[in-house]
Amino acid sequence: MSSSSRSVSSMWEEYLISLGEAPETSDKTYQSWCFGSAPDQLAELTRSGIKRATASLHFWYLKQGETMPKPGDLSIVTDSSGNAACVIQTTKVTILPFCNVTPEFAFREGEGDKTLQYWQNAHRAFFTKELAELGLPFEDDMAVVCEEFHKVFP
Known about the structure:
Low-confidence stretches: none
Mean pLDDT: 95
Strand content: 15-25%
Structural class: alpha+beta
Helix content: 25-40%
Radius of gyration: 16 Å
Shape: globular
Number of domains: 1
Distance between the termini: 14 Å
Number of strands: 5
CATH superfamily: Sulfate adenylyltransferase
Order of helices and strands: HEHEHEEHHE
């Protein structure tokens, strides 16, 4: 994480001002979150523009009643301490079986050596651990939400 830690609200205000919008009258909205595994490292990869995608199990959106991401959504990615790293905008969302994730998507995730094999190994381990807490097995045909984004600020 960079040495200049920012709160989520101050980054949002700076982002709106950079667009020429007054924070108190803007109708733009955002969510704030950190990545589930290695949040500090992944926030830095996102801030630096290397990480341009993320994946999660579709199961969690159904189970937790969360709203699915959609193109145009704005989010502030934070580190594990809640410090704002950057603002991203979702550009594409695809739901497909884990086993059908493409090498191109794995590369956009920007993790490890950026290969599909690395992506599969890392995500299989992460998803298996997540599901084990509920006593559920991971299966290669489970639906994955593949979200692509670009950093819009700073």
